[in-house]
Amino acid sequence: MRKPVWIALLGLVLVAAGLGAYLWASPYLFLRELQEAILAGDRARLERMVDFPRVREGLKAQINAQLLKELEKTQDPFAGLGYVFAAGLINAFVDAFLTPEGLAAIGTGAEPGQAPKEEVRNWRLKYQDFRTAYIHHSNDPQSRLYLERQGLFGWRVVRIDLPPE
Asked: In the chain, what are the domain boundaries?
């Protein structure tokens, strides 16, 4: 009678360990899938993996904040006019950046579309906490794609942080 209980407990422990391992490995599996989608240029798969509206708005806000910070530093009376002109170009820049080619350029220092897509193979992943992780290029840990846990095992890119330049 004791043997079936022991086998059931062992089975439960093994299932729990397997689920825990998959829970820990899930962002790494997501990173591999994201790399494959970028290399294949699969926009439909990227749509499922990246929250483009949220990333787009965050990136626009980040660039606008950086432009305003630069505007405050200058004494040029025409700087405000330059800001208005630059602000109009932000949408075009963000749209060019949020493509497979643009994402591949993160952390390389190259313009969107100028870096080879194979650069995504140099991405690394780091956990921040249970719900958040980020991806960065091995040569540039400051440029990051932030991932947020979706459910228990799913992940999605929700933010891009670029270093101020």
From this structure: 2-50+100-161
Token pair of 163, please? Answer: 């270093």
In whole angstroms, how far apart are CA 20 and each of 6, 17, 31, 152?
21, 5, 18, 11
> Percent helix, strand and coil across the chain, each rounded to 5?
60, 20, 20
Provide the Cα torsion 164, 137, 22, 29; round to 10°.
110
Residue 111 has pLDDT above 90, yes or no: no
pLDDT per position as a tens digit, 115-165: 888 989 999 999 999 999 999 999 888 899 999 999 888 999 999 998 876
User: What is the dihedral angle through the alpha carbons of 145, 148, 152, 155, rounded to the nearest 10 degrees?
Assistant: -40
Amino acid letter, 154:
G
Q: Distance between alpha carbon 147 and the CA centroid of its chain, in Å?
A: 6
| C-alpha to C-alpha distance for 153 and 17, rounded to whole angstroms | 15
Cα 29 from Cα 55, distance rounded (Å): 21
Q: For residue 2, name the pLDDT band (cuts at 50, 70, 90).
A: confident
Position 165 scores a pLDDT of: 65
Question: Of 11-25, 104-118, 132-146, which gets the smallest average pLDDT?
Answer: 104-118
Query: Alpha-carbon distance 122 to 42, whole Å?
Result: 19
